[in-house]
Amino acid sequence: MTALFALATSLLWGLADFGGGLLTRRTPALTVVVASQTVAVVVLGAIVVATGGFSEAGPRLWYAVAAGAVGPVAMLCFYKALALGPMGVVSPLGSLGVAVPVGVGLLLGERPGLLQFAGIAVAVAGIVLAGGPELRGAPVRRQAVLLTLVAAFGFGAVLALIAEASTTLTGLFLALFVQRVTNVAVGGAALYVSVKRGGRALPEDGGARTVLRSLPALAFVGLADVAANGTYSIAAQTGPVTVAAVLANLYPVVTVLAALMVLKERLRSVQAAGAGLALVGTVLLASG
């Protein structure tokens, strides 16, 4: 069950990242984040009311608040690092956030078997290679590396925090709702500051109409991201966090394959090798 839910997480995150990447080609990234998470807040609010989730309120929700505050900061650092580039270096480095939940699991006493340790090593190598790292040529600015490492730590922290935010299904709905409300608050504040400094909130082409036409895609991105957080939380609670975190972080492979199938992007040999290694690591983790 742990492997199943963790792999579902990687699928959902991979598709959400692919959709978000397409949307940010026309719409400012902050607007995409705030709009997609607002849709998630509305849907999750309805679910929480319907399931009586507010009765699950307790101290654990502070983990959800922390995850909601860290998430947008990590995403903004990641987008900024991508802008500074090169993307072939930034994207794989962002995957290193998996070290945070894995480290937490080890500190809490989890001890994966030999096959699982091998699977972790192979899968992480596959994740990094799937991003298509540029091993030579393009120069890397120090600021891009630092921003990427901050983003990676933030992504990993969100995984570790959301896994601690609830112990029941209805409590999970409430935790995800609180996380998303915090996401919107933090992202909205950042968007406001950006606009005050001369940034754009709406696309240059079409303005608000473009955002409205993109609403179904924004809803998909927001809800897929929420569902991924939910499936990861379940995976982390039903099995070793060290296994769940690595399998959940296979999402770059999903994003690369989606770009290959939908956008007809060519898969570099290093990316194909990374996808293969990630698959081998998955098998080792599931069988260990």
Description:
By secondary structure, the chain is mainly alpha-helical. Helix content is 77%, strand content 0%. The protein has 13 helices and no strands. It has helices at 2-23, 29-51, 61-84, 87-94, 99-107, 114-130, 142-163, 169-196, 208-213, 215-238, 241-248, 251-262, 269-287. α2 (29-51) packs across α10, α5 (99-107) packs across α7 (142-163) and α10 (215-238) runs antiparallel to α11.
Biggest sheet record: none
**Overall shape:** globular
Low-confidence stretches: none
Instruction: Compute the number of strand runs.
Output: 0
Question: What attributes characterize this protein structure?
Answer:
288 residues; mainly alpha; 13 helices; 77% helix; 0% strand
How are the SSEs ordered, and which strands pair?
Elements: H1 2-23, H2 29-51, H3 61-84, H4 87-94, H5 99-107, H6 114-130, H7 142-163, H8 169-196, H9 208-213, H10 215-238, H11 241-248, H12 251-262, H13 269-287
Helix pairs in contact: 1-10, 1-11, 1-12, 2-8, 2-10, 3-4, 3-7, 3-8, 4-7, 5-7, 5-11, 6-11, 6-12, 6-13, 8-10, 10-11
Summarize this entry quickly.
This protein is 77% helix and 0% strand. The protein is mostly helical.
